[in-house]
Design a protein that fits this description.
0% helix, 27% strand, Immunoglobulin-like, 215 residues, four-stranded mixed sheet
C-alpha cells in the first residue's frame, strides 16, 4: 500500500466593517454549515498518481483494487519478465506520472527510506519535464530527499545515455503547475546480487506541498 501525505486546510470567512455607533462585538456564536468530502482513486485525486499507456514503462505501475498506485518490478508487471536482472543497473524512464489536479503549484518528492534497498533505488525525472531554468533535456535528476540530500547527488555526469556508467547530474525538487504532469522514472542497482527471488518490498511515500523546504 502506498502512503501519501496530504495537508487539508479548513479556511475561515470573516467580514468586518466600522460602524458609527457600537463595536459589533459578540461573546458567542454557533452555526451549522455544510461540508462535503470525497475520496477519489489516486488517478482522480487532487494529487493525481497514475501510469497511462503513453509512458515508456507504465507496465511497472498500476492503480490497484484499493484505488492506490502500485509499483511492481516482479511477476505482477504486464511484461514477459518476472523480475530485475541480477548484478546489474537498470533505468526505467517514465514509470508513473504525478499530476497536479489542484489549483496552485506544488513541489513533490519521493521518500523510499522504508525500503531495505533504498540506497540502491532512485526515483528521478528528466530535465525536459522540469519548468525551471538550469535543467537540461536528457539529464536525469534524483527527486528523493530535501534539497542537497537527494540520493545520487554526488554521482555526477552530463548524460546517462552517453555510456553504461552514467548517472543523474544531481538532485531536483520538481514543481508542478496546476493542470501539469511530470513522469517519474526509477533506477535500480542490483550489483553483487545473484540470488533469484524476492529482492525488496515495502512502502514508498510521495510527498507534495506548496513548499518542501521544511521536512
Amino acid at each position: 500500500m502506498q502512503r501519501r501525505k496530504f495537508l487539508v486546510g479548513m479556511g475561515s470567512l470573516a467580514a468586518g466593517g466600522a460602524a458609527t455607533i457600537g463595536t459589533g462585538a459578540f461573546s458567542n456564536f454557533q452555526g451549522n454549515r455544510d461540508a462535503n468530502f470525497s475520496i477519489a482513486a489516486d488517478n482522480n485525486a487532487f494529487l493525481g498518481l497514475d501510469a497511462p499507456s503513453s509512458l515508456e514503462n507504465n507496465e511497472h505501475a498500476s492503480i490497484g483494487g484499493d484505488n492506490e498506485l502500485k509499483i511492481h518490478f516482479n511477476s505482477t508487471s504486464s511484461t514477459g519478465g518476472t523480475g530485475l536482472n541480477p548484478d546489474s543497473e537498470t533505468w526505467f524512464d517514465q514509470v508513473f506520472r504525478v499530476t497536479n489536479q489542484g489549483t496552485q503549484p506544488i513541489d513533490f518528492m519521493v521518500d523510499d527510506d522504508d525500503l531495505s534497498q533504498s540506497e540502491n533505488i532512485v526515483f528521478y525525472v528528466d530535465g525536459s519535464f522540469l519548468p525551471d531554468s538550469g535543467y537540461n533535456t536528457g539529464d536525469l535528476y534524483a527527486i528523493e530527499g530535501y534539497p542537497g540530500t537527494a540520493e545520487g547527488a554526488g554521482r555526477e555526469d552530463d548524460d546517462q545515455h552517453a555510456n553504461a556508467s552514467d548517472y543523474w547530474v544531481g538532485s531536483a525538487r520538481p514543481q508542478v503547475g496546476s493542470g501539469d504532469s511530470i513522469p517519474v522514472g526509477i533506477y535500480v542497482d542490483t550489483t553483487g546480487e545473484n540470488t533469484v527471488g524476492s529482492w525488496d518490498s515495502g512502502t514508498v511515500t510521495i510527498k507534495a506541498s506548496e513548499n518542501l523546504n521544511q521536512p
